[in-house]
Amino acid sequence: MANNAVKLPEFWEAQAEVWFAQAKAQFQLRRITGDASRYYHVVAALGPSTAARVVCLHNAEEFLKSSSYDCAPQKLITMEHSSSALILVDEQLEISDDIVVTEGEQVTLICRYKGNDSVSQVTWRFLAAAPLPPPEPRPPPLALATLSPLYGSNFAVPFDGRATFEGSQGPIGPSGGRDGTLHLSEARRADGGTYICVFTLFPRGGLRAGLELQVLVPPQISAFQANPAPVSPSLSSDSQFSHKTFTPALAAICEAWGARPPSTIHWRLSTILERLVAQPNLGHSPVVSPQSSPGGPLWVSRSELWLQPNRTAHGQNATCVVSHPALITDVEKEVNLRVLYAPEVRVEGYDGSWYVNGPGGKLHCMVDSNPPPSVFTWTRMNDTLPAGVRLHNATLDLLAPLTPELAGTYQCHVDNGVGEGQAGIQVNIEALESSAADQLAFPVRLLSLPFAVALPAFFIILCLFLPVALWFRRRRQRRRHGHCASDNDVYFDGFTTAPPPPISRVPPSLKPHNTDGDRFMIVYPSPGRGDTVSLAAIPPVCSPGEREPQRHDMFCAMGGLSSHHVPLSLPQRHELSQSAGSLRH
Question: How many CA atoms lie within 13 A of 314 on its CB side?
Answer without folding.
Answer: 16
